[in-house]
Structures are given as structure tokens and as C-alpha cells.
Fold this sequence. Notes:
Number of domains: 2
Membrane topology: Single-pass membrane protein
EC number: 2.4.1.-
Main location: membrane
GO cellular component, one term: membrane
CATH class of the largest domain: Alpha Beta
CATH topology of the largest domain: Spore Coat Polysaccharide Biosynthesis Protein SpsA, Chain A
Protein name: Glycosyltransferase family 92 protein
Amino acid sequence: MLFCGKKSYFAAVVCIITLTATVTLSYLQLQRLSNRPKIIQEGSRCRGKITNSTITALKDNRTFIISPYFDDRESKVTRVIGIVHHEDVKQLYCWFCCQPNGKMYVSKANIDVHSDRFGFPYGAADIVCLEPENCDPTHVSIHQSPNGNTDQLPRFEIKNRKAEAFSVDFTVCISAMFGNYNNVLQFIQSMEMYKILGVQKVVIYKNNCSHLMEKVLKFYMEEGTVEIIPWPINSHLKVSSKWHFMQDGTHIGYYGQITALNDCIYRNMQRSKFVVLIDADEIILPLKHPDWKTMMRSLQEQNPGTGIFLFENHIFPETVSTHVFNISSWSTVPGVNILQHVHREPDRKDVINPRKMIIDPRKVIQTSVHSVLHAYSNSVNVPMDTGLIYHCRVPLQGNLPRESLIRDTTLWRYNLSLITNVNKVLHQTVL
């Protein structure tokens, strides 16, 4: 009897598991079917005004569209980088127009709000829609409903539709230049260091900066190094200059930095071999190699298949300086002279140094600031003896005496080229 009871119990458990699995699979199939594009109009033409704005608010004023990108790494989808209210935005639809047949398709979106919101009500989001079969739509509209009039909806170009050969090896993404940014000297030094290390393109999401900084940016744009993405996020949301929510009525942290970083990855997915996610006051310094190209070749050989390389951030306080490289002509330029700051703070006990990244953008799905959230490859922490982030800023350990700091003159290996190049830029822009 006891044996039979066990058999009956086992059979019941198997039955329940089978039933649950069947129901779950049926639900997922229904979900997939409901997300498949459906024809809603035939013989019409694509309507709605094409928008070129970097940030476009939808009518609900809870959804903000940055840009759609074609993504066929798993299935044929349009992935729209956006910002949404994490509670209020429940459903969205992609409206695709297929030319030349004029068929209009609507596809229910999967709204994936990134996990790193840091408490703010608005966060970066991927709005992902399956694309119609036998159609490569060039534009898409986003709407709260599967029904309605497309005439009044803004239309967005779907980028990355055509595969391209890499035009550059390294692109630096600098998110959210704001606060009337005027650290001109350090910015020029960083730009010239990036170029020495092998960067061909720097993408800057610019909210605002000083008039003098505008002149410098214009120079680098005309040179072909800098691409400016206008970033008027404070026209749409109450922004915080801090990364975590302070319950002060702000909507999103650090001027929407995470959204800008994700957009920059997809924007450069087809054209750059690597994307570097750092700030303008940060430089990834190779210690064993002369430049990034040779460093990354070595790291990839040591870590085959890895697409995310994380470098430790180390603070070089701008309050501690040396008299070496006190260049008189630079003294009239606003900003920090990084060549005079070669003392770094020691590691703090029980505190993990944050990291910034060099990534293969084709292996990344979603990123945060100091780590990748979802990817198609592993991440590796780069040893400090291979490379570190030189971060010249206000100190984190301001009470430390000078003798407690670590003298690190790695930056001086590049001083001859750096001084020559910075002087050329200054004489064409500021001096």
C-alpha cells in the first residue's frame, strides 16, 4: 500500500508538472502570436512627419524616443532606445510601413526597462518589436495603441539597416556634457591622448557647455574627430546631476547618462570595432603596451570570445600637483593640466574600485555605467598591470597626506607628443 501510495503521489506530481509546462508553453505561444506584426492597412502610403530630434516625447509624455535600430542578432527586430516611466507605461506598439506595397503593419512591443534605474521613476528602456516578414522597413512610428491615425505620428528612421565595414577601430562615447562645461584644457588633453592611443572618433552627448568649449568642439568636429549628439533632456524631464535618487522631485539621474551610453553603443555597432565608455576626465592608460590597439589584441588573445573588458578607475586628485610641466601659455586656459597630477589615491579598504569599459558593441545588449547588464559574451576584469583608468578630478580621499598617495608617472611616457598636439589645438582655438 505504501509503495502504491508513493507511485500515485509521483504520478500526480508528474501530471501537475506536465500541465504547468503545457499551460506555460501555450501562454508563451499566445504571447509570441500577439507580438507578431499584423496588417492593419493596405495600399496606403507612409504618413507622419519624419523626425530628426535626438529626444522625441510621445503624446503620453511618459515615453521618450531616442532612436530605433535594426537588430537581427537573435531574430529580426527593431530595437528602440528610449526613456519610459517604469510604472506608467504599460504597452506600446510599433507601426511599420512597408514600401513599395504600402502595407501598414502593427507589432506589439516588449518594453524592457533597464534594471539600473537607481531609484528614479524614469529609466532607460529597450522597446523591442518583431518586424514584418518579407519587409525591411526603413521607418517606424511608436504609439500607445494598435489603432488610430498614423498621419499625426512622428516617424523615426531605423538605423543599422545595412551592414557596413568598420570605418574605425575605436570610438569613445562621452555621455552627458552638462553644467556649462568649461574644463577646456583637460578636455583638449584627453582628446589628444585618445588620438595618441588610437581613437578615430569621439561621440559626445551635449546638453550644454561654455562659449569657449563650443569653439573647441567646433574645431574637433571640423577635424572629423568629434560627433556631437544634441542632448536636451532637461527640456523633457527634471534631471538630477547625481546618479542615485534623492527623492527631490527629479525624474532621471545624471542627465540620462545610461540612455545615452546605450544609444551610443547601437549608433556605432556597425561602424566601430570597439566602443569605449568613459568620461572626458578619464583616460584608459595601457601599462604594458604603447596604445589601445596592441593592448586589445593581446587581451583578446588571452581571453578568446570575450567582448567586454573592464578597467579599474583610479583617482589622481587635482588638488595635489607637481611643478613639472608648468607650461606658462597653458595657465590662461580654463581647466586642469593633467601632466601636473601624477599622484593617485591608494585603494580604500573594503571598497571596490568602479570600472569603465572597452567593449565589442556587437556582443552587448544593454549596458549600465560600470558594467554590462546583458550581453552575448563574458566580461573580464583587466589586471591593473595591463591598464588602468587615469581619472583626474576632485579627491575622494581628501584628508590623505601627500606621502600617502602613490606617485604614478605613466602619463609622462606620452608627454612630448601630448604637449606638441595640445599646443597646436590651443593656437587654433583658444590662444
